[in-house]
Amino acid sequence: MKEKQTARLRRRLADPRPILVGGAHNALSAKLVEEAGFDAIWASGFEISASHAVPDANILAMAENCEAARLMAAAAGIPVIADCDTGYGNAVNVIRTVQAYEAAGIAAICIEDNVFPKRCSFYSSVKRELVSAEEHAGKIRAAKAAQIDPDFVVIARTEALIAGWGMEEALLRANAYADAGADAVLIHSKADKPDEILAFAVRWKRNVPLVAVPTTYKTVPAHVLGEAGYRIVIYANHGLRAAIKAMQTALKTIREQGRADAADSLIVKLEEVYRIVGVPELQKDEKTYLPKGAPPVRAIILAAGYQPHLGKLIQDAPKSLLEIKGRTILDRQLEVLKAAGVDRVSVVRGYKKEKIRLPDVRTYDNDRFETTGEIASLACAAKEIEGRTLLLYGDIVFDRAVLQRLLESTADIAILVDRSWRDEAPGSRAPEAAPDLVVEKSPPPQGLRFVSSREPGDVVRIGAKIPPGEAHSEFIGIVLLSEKGSKIVRGAIDEIAPKNEKAGLTDLLQALVDRGHPVKAVEVYKGWTEIDSFEDYQRAWAMLH
Ligand code: SPV
Ligand code: MG
After folding, report:
1. pLDDT tens-digit profile of 271-321?
2. What is the CATH number of the domain that holds 174?
3. Does the reported pTM lie above 0.90?
4. Diameter over CA atoms, the chain
5. Catalytic site residue 56?
6. Nearest to 528 by CA among 361, 333, 283, 352
């Protein structure tokens, strides 16, 4: 079981080395104290007040200080010693304070003998009064009686030296607080040398540990205080002061130079913030506990080709930039891909390549587009064939529902085919149209009515040369590869592209079938069009919004 912070602090107190404590004001600074290697965190009233931009003068309520300390304890893995000022009132208030701080997971509290409302020990020209030793001893007794965990530590602090009441008074008070049950006594000093602190230790004969706060007598090393008998040394406000200076410098630099990178050498990288606040853990937890969702898909659009028979239509720009009612084929493709969750899209350019320039699209160039085919274009973008990948012709327009059916496929290599082709009236296509036809292993059921509920069929043959009478469907020009499918296709491209530069996408698919890799035909019925002729273009105009 994880050791409680109270027990940990007690164990550390039994160790002769002084406990080194760093001041903090919130969860982040507490974590930094822990990361710096301190033994414990001082939830400093001075720092917490300053972080609210108010003086250290009991302006903040107990609940505000306690919440700050609770957040520190929650964020850090070392004990928190909370500065509780005067205990926020008399002995009755102290009882409530102990209950609140124990419940907040705090290992120790420190209560000082200033009157309420206290004034920071270092402020000059402010009212400085102490409660009687008797009253403060009563608070210590109340605190010890209120604690539930026997290891919870109560530190009594005397301000006798700060208030100028002298060494004898300091000793008298420290003894009275030890008698009242204090687990440690903090002797505060605002001298610039440690002499009075060291002199006090010489005269301290009790077995109750001493606590020092070397803020003004800052030259004394911790080990010297340790050897003198101080078992806890608190560096009460140095983190806060370092932060103020760093913020002032960085902000001034940016303001003066008018650019963010002027502060680069003065600030940590964003990644350092991510590390401290636990972004890696967040990422791990997301992976472990959030629903998996669909794996990401990328797409490669093959838009390099030049078809002279389209003449004037593509005189100034590649076919994928043909406008149909104000939107190009490529725009329409990108819109559907985006809506389907495909966010990484690459386009292989060739003919009039300079015309294809889109901010969210990666481009690859097949500069030999006139003499090579789609495999050569794919080879140019081979590094994009990675994970789940869609390969698409650049001259097709399709509905989102059509794409969605393909995206639901779990096959390693799946292609979209259209069954409506069999129902087309003879002669309805331009004579030069040579559709990419598909022969499947088990012919799909015949008939005009169509419900595409059957499992994807196995492609046996694919290509423009298949006699129409033998074909079962038409290839739409979209392929989906799984991660494994992408690997297979990359290998096939490496092998085929150098030997057959003119090979097309259907040649690649046929080669995969011939090598024994199942290519699955996912059926749809219409929902797409290809722009391969002037007639296609006219039809698309009539059909599309
Ligand atoms: C604090 O940090 O709030 C303290 C220590 O009480 S000191 O400011 O040095 O008094
Ligand atoms: Mg304080």
Report:
1. 999 999 999 999 999 989 998 877 889 999 999 988 777 777 777 889 899
2. 3.20.20.60
3. no
4. 115
5. yes
6. 333
